[in-house]
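#data-curation
PF: Archiving a pair of folding outputs for the training set. Convention for this channel: one message per protein, sequence first, structure tokens after, nothing in between. First:
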Amino acid sequence: VVIKLMQKKVQWERERKTRNDFDLDPKYVVLTLPNVPSDTEIADAVKEGRGGLKAIEEEFLNDIVLGKYAIVMGLGPRNLLQIFYQEQPKNDAVREILRQVFEAVKHLHEKNLMHGDIKMLNIVRLGIDNGLRLIDFDASARIVPQGGEEESFAGAK
């Protein structure tokens, strides 16, 4: 389980809206988990430092302010940057990586959604099938036809 804590409510709302409104396929995206504590319960736990959070914060997160807005999702044990540094994939494996990334981006674009922050850290491999998935949708934006009046999630027209 990964708990992504965000400081800015607008980014958290954008990520939640993207995940809720676009019917994203788990073949391409790490989904949020069902049956997790409520937003209020998570915010209270962060504020109070419950569940070992206080000790982690004191030991490892000096001078970092934890966000109180949370996205709870399944764990992608390794991101693409780690894969390249630690596994040093050969050409055929790189081709497969690129194919999976392009398929995930195509899936988003077919849903009229732009990720907005694709980078190696936002592509993770799941142990379920060793497939790559996208994470981090707080910079996402709806794709609208040129001249369209609809506002994107990022606030641009």
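PF: Second:
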Amino acid sequence: MATPRIPQPPDVVTLSVVRNPLTGRRIITGSSVIGSAAPCAALIAPGSRLAPALRCLVRSGFRLIARTQGIWVFRRIR
């Protein structure tokens, strides 16, 4: 009989984002990580652009699960 495995909880990344009115670029103002954001941890720092962080998160298996005014929530199930 196989030994039961405890499932790992999902990784969750929450980003707070504002749009720069002069350039139109979205800038990360804050982030919260539950679990791991590897290999994208360096890209989700406050003050960095959203586009590179978004590409990295999607390539790493994260999916956008919620988006409201200025808040983006991503989840990865391993």
